[in-house]
Design brief:
Nucleotidyltransferase, domain 5; alpha/beta; 33% helix; 4-stranded mixed beta sheet
Length: 377
Amino acid sequence: MTHLVEHLRASLATSTLRAVGHRVVHGGVRYSHPVRVDAAIVAYLETLVPLAPLHQPHNLAPIHALLARSPQLPQVACFDTSFHRAMPEVAQAFALPAAITDRGVRRYGFHGLSYEYIASVLPGIDAGAARGRTVVAHLGNGASMCAMQGGVSVASTMGFTAVDGLMMGTRTGALDPGVVLYLMDELGMDVRAVEAMLYKESGLLGVSGVSSDMRTLLASAEPRAKLAVDLFCYRARARAGLDGGRAGRPRRAGVHRRHRRARRADPSARGRGRAGSASRSTRRPTPPTVRGSRPQAPRARLGRAHERRVDDCPAHAGAARDGLSQRAIDLAPFRVNSKCHPEEPRRRGTCFSRFDGSKQQRIPRSARDDKLGVTSW
């Protein structure tokens, strides 16, 4: 810090330093906007160090130094949690007793300054996405996703601390709390040892045993390096379905900008669009296909002829003799009656509701179900 101050003093010899701005990861429940810091505010921010141990101490160190060297110099703190304070109350709450929630144990969300910047420039890039619902991904050594609606945060993968959500360089991401209890009860690890594991020894580094750097893992031939990349991509895709986000998919931070291979690394994503994508697809799901037939049409198109014969279902082989057409079959799927197929009582696509073959009109559901023994859901 001393070196930086001296450098600025030399570089700005003919100018006056008016103020200093700081990025501070955690603002807690008090601060949802930038604030001018003083000793009292810094004291409060110190109490949030346990919630962001990798970042908060380093964020506060230059503030302390400048307060000591130049107490008259204005300093402004901008918080990564501020952008997410707009999330609905239900998105900020944990299912914990009110006494715990009232102490500030809630979902805060992080990387807010990054998301706030994207929200500010997105209208000039894609006005439709800016007005609608968008999932934004911040993928780097620290990683998270944020669902925005109209440029406002409505959900975040990160929660009470910056260790939650996506898998990261050295952080676990989302983890069953029972694992923490197991580490303490069965392995005898104390709180500090668990903290070190969750924040510094897990993520890409912990899974691969090689590195926390995606570039190193992509270049490595080690099987566990590949596993780490695959797990990162799998977790990112799984979390892309945040509430509210589906239209656009802007991304920030190092992984997306530099590593297309990482975005294609997830085998489950092949053939389904861009792997590692940070957004939920807007395409309609492909209708299920009945063996030997065309894909099922939407319900609005009911009544078109279908190639499947009613006698494909042994229990309903006599349906045609009861006056029902073998070709006029309703395309809407129904659960198979367990009396027909006891071995697969929930299989879809075998028995269907039918139309009256003579009038080609839809039979009321109750009547056709009684006649064919089909149970609809």
